[in-house]
Design brief:
Order of helices and strands of chain B: HHEHHHEHEEEEHEHHHH
Oligomer: heterodimer
Radius of gyration of chain A: 19 Å
Number of strands of chain B: 7
Distance between the termini of chain B: 70 Å
Order of helices and strands of chain A: EHEHEHEHHEHEHEEEEHEEHEHEHH
Helix content of chain B: 40-55%
Structural class of chain A: alpha/beta
Strand content of chain A: 15-25%
Strand order of the largest sheet of chain A: 3-2-4-5-7-6-12
Shape of chain A: globular
Number of helices of chain A: 12
Number of strands of chain A: 14
Largest interface: A-B, 72 and 75 residues
Structural class of chain B: alpha/beta
Strand content of chain B: 5-15%
Number of helices of chain B: 11
Strand order of the largest sheet of chain B: 1-2-3-7-6
Shape of chain B: globular
Radius of gyration of chain B: 28 Å
């Protein structure tokens, strides 16, 4: 998809991320990059392409296949005031460093006043037939961890602006990049430096009959469904959450108080997904405003299967969103 | 080796070991009075390791203690009241009661990283500290400790291997106290010397009598100097014995009596004291003065700790996130010119080149070619490829063909 032009050249999601890292490293010598194959090879998806050549071996570190060591070392670096960006080659592998992230990195500020300004980023999500170990959406493991911030953008503009904000943030930030979007969307980006605030959702399409909350690749699926719904006279408001932790409850509530109906769409599996959390928030804070149940369209509660026919059955799509939205609109 | 130390160094080591033991003795009393909130872990008989190794560090260096390294904290400059208050969950403790024991740190002044209970996780963290210190030109060394038990964790391997690949100025002290809770070292590791693990990482190692403080110090000093000089990480195995149980609740009845007796006869403080007296570095009067100094200090430190309040309940939900510059102004302390790490000075010759790299422009986006490290550079039109480049390619092709035909032939033969 092509977004509204401002100036500059249209770039892919992938290139937006590369630009963010490149520009932050140019701006601040405290920013370093480490991960598997991020240097000579430029990253498995080429997101760090050219960084080694520009910034040298001290700032761009190819590491052994040791996720715990990558996260742990980055945490140690951050204690001396560096701002490391760690790449998980595929975000599926982040769980290899689960203890390091949830017990060391996340708890430091609360327990002993030790901020860890670091970013953990990498390609996530399915739809590219990567199979059960290269398609994960593990965001909710970390949304359940106080001390972390969790970002999952859906556009090149947001990806660049949010990644820059993450690098400048004093807290550990997990930054998920949906690999389905890497080369499928392009957007013209401003030539000048900009950031996108962490913790702020955005209304992608205005509507009055129901609210669709989504993020990452499913935001585009939701927009596609909203287009089809409009043809049937149902005006859906589509909100891109962008940040999952902290969640922008105000933007969500504002929209639901207007539309009185809410559908949550995410690619993460159903049980324990963010939709459940949002349903609870709406029950607590907007019960009187709801005219119908909070519905959710999610992936199945299974591992991500490999075969295209199976993965298509596993994932949400515009048709499933359309059907659920129509059901909700009846209330 | 012992002779190389000055009298003051010998006396310092003695003082800190005595202080270490006295702090822990005081905490046993507090524990029995129910004034300690959680568990209490003892380093009885292992004081020489905490004290001797930490004493080898300079003020600017970084350390991260384990649960039994109270001595290292004291050497680094932590006041005993902080240790008491940590155990008592007091509001004035370094973590304000949010965590206990030796789980606290100080990034600004003392350069201490807090441990967590999961063993081994400090190793990559302290490797990162060492790498960052080198990057900033600070010429620091980082140090942490691990037990015989903790050396079996995955992150021990990941961390030490990563530190070795980076040649990080990092010293790891492996305290082999023969027991991981109730499991003897022989059931954990099929090695006589845990220092042998250093071979797997291509790094230097030492084995030291962990109950001889002067030897521990001399060895650690040498290791710290070598690490600082750029030799990479160094592993020191200190042989010792955990005299008490895993914590206060554990009577450690699984330990053979003879083993305990053997090590009790090798108490590090008694040994060092005997040495100091025989070498006339200390006399009865000097010893009494040290004891009085410690008693006086700990009496006031304990009083302060006991008078500190419990944290207010509202603290429970505070401090999860850094709220920005008003909360923490994060600024790396550069001790080398930043220009050394900023382009173009920091850049290196590319192994391969990509059009547009470093210009902040798109490198091709959707049409970006997949690059491999061995892809030949694009040549301007009209320029012929050098013959030397073409030749190995052809021969490589032939090799592939030849080897491909072999398995096929053997499969046929097997049929």
């Amino acid at each position: 998809m092509t977004m509204t032009a401002t100036n500059g050249l249209p770039v892919t999601f992938l290139e937006a991320i590369r630009q963010a890292m490149f520009e932050e490293m140019e701006r601040d010598p405290a920013v370093v990059v480490l991960g598997e194959d991020v240097g000579v090879y430029g990253g498995a998806f080429k997101t760090s392409e050219g960084l080694l050549e520009r910034f040298g071996w001290e700032r761009v570190m190819d590491t052994p296949i040791s996720e715990s060591a990558i996260i742990g070392a980055a945490c140690g670096m951050s204690y001396l005031g560096l701002r490391p960006i760690c790449e998980m080659q595929f975000v599926d592998f982040i769980v290899c460093a689960f203890n390091q992230i949830t017990n060391f990195v996340a708890k430091g500020h609360y327990l002993w006043d030790a901020p860890a300004p670091m970013v953990i980023r990498g390609p996530s999500g399915g739809g590219v037939h990567g199979g059960p170990f290269h398609s994960a959406n593990p965001e909710m493991y970390f949304v359940h961890t106080p001390g972390l911030k969790v970002i999952y953008p859906s556009t090149p503009y947001d990806a660049k602006g949010l990644l820059k904000a993450a690098v400048r943030d004093n807290n550990p930030v997990l930054f998920f990049e949906h690999k389905f979007l890497y080369r499928r969307i392009k957007e013209e980006l401003p030539a000048e430096d900009y950031t996108v605030p962490i913790g702020k959702a955005v209304v992608r399409r205005e509507g009055r009959h129901l609210t669709i909350l989504s993020y990452a690749a499913m935001m585009h699926t939701s927009l596609e469904a909203a287009g089809a719904l409009a043809k049937e006279g149902i005006e859906a408001e589509v909100i891109d959450l962008r940040t999952l932790l902290p969640l922008d409850e105000e933007t969500i509530l504002q929209s639901v108080k207007k539309t009185n109906k809410c559908l949550v769409v995410h690619e993460d599996t159903r049980t324990g997904g963010i939709a459940g959390e949002i349903a609870a928030i709406l029950c607590e804070r907007a019960f009187e405003d709801l005219d119908g149940p909070v519905l959710r369209v999610t992936s199945l509660d299974t591992p991500v299967p490999y075969a295209p026919t199976l993965e298509e059955a596993f994932l949400p799509n515009a048709q499933k969103v359309f059907t659920a939205a129509k059901e909700l609109a009846r209330y | 080796m012992k002779k190389e130390l000055t009298r003051q160094q010998h006396l310092d080591l003695y003082y800190y070991m005595r202080l270490n033991r006295a702090v822990e003795d005081t905490m046993v009393k507090l524990f029995r009075q129910n004034k300690i909130v959680g568990g209490l872990y003892s380093s009885l008989g292992q004081e020489a390791i905490s004290v001797g190794t930490a004493y080898a560090l300079e003020k600017k260096d970084w350390l991260a203690p384990m649960i039994r390294n109270i001595g290292a904290l004291l050497v680094k400059g932590v006041p005993p009241r902080d240790i008491f208050m940590q155990h008592m969950a007091k509001y004035d403790s370094p973590t304000k009661g949010k965590d206990g024991t030796s789980h606290f740190g100080d990034l600004e002044n003392l350069h201490i990283v807090s441990p967590i209970s999961m063993l081994g996780d400090l190793i990559p963290v302290m490797a990162g500290v060492a790498i960052a210190g080198r990057y900033l030109g600070q010429k620091i060394v980082s140090m942490t400790w691990i037990g015989d038990g903790g050396s079996s964790t995955g992150v021990f391997h990941e961390g030490l291997n990563f530190a070795a690949t980076q040649k990080a100025p990092f010293v790891l002290i492996l305290e082999n106290n023969l027991w991981a809770y109730s499991t003897p070292v022989k059931r954990q590791v099929p090695l006589q010397n845990l220092a042998d693990r250093a071979k797997a990482y291509g790094i230097s190692s030492y084995i030291v009598d962990g109950n001889d403080v002067a030897e521990v110090y001399s060895t650690a000093r040498e290791a710290v100097e070598r690490a600082r000089a750029g030799e990479g990480p160094i592993l020191i195995e200190a042989k010792t014995f955990r005299r008490l149980g895993h914590a206060q609740h554990d009577p450690a009845e699984y330990v053979p009596k003879e083993m305990r007796a053997y090590w009790e006869a090798r108490d590090p403080i008694e040994r060092h004291e005997k040495f100091l007296l025989s070498e006339k570095l200390l006399d009865a009067k000097g010893k009494a003065e040290i004891e009085k100094k410690i008693d006086t200090l700990l009496a006031s430190e304990r009083e302060f700790a006991e008078n500190s309040p419990m944290p207010p309940p509202e603290l429970a939900e505070q401090g999860v996130y850094c709220t920005g510059d008003d909360c923490h102004k994060i600024a790396a302390k550069w001790e080398r010119p930043k220009s050394e790490v900023m382009p173009p000075k920091s850049s290196v010759a590319a192994v391969w080149s990509v059009e547009g790299f470093g210009q902040g422009k798109a490198s091709g986006g959707a049409n970006a070619p997949i690059h491999f490290g061995d892809a030949p550079a694009e040549k301007p039109a009209g320029e012929s490829k050098p013959a030397s480049r073409a030749t190995p390619k052809t021969s490589a092709k032939k090799l592939v063909k030849a080897s491909a035909s072999k398995p096929a032939a053997s499969r046929k033969a097997r049929r």
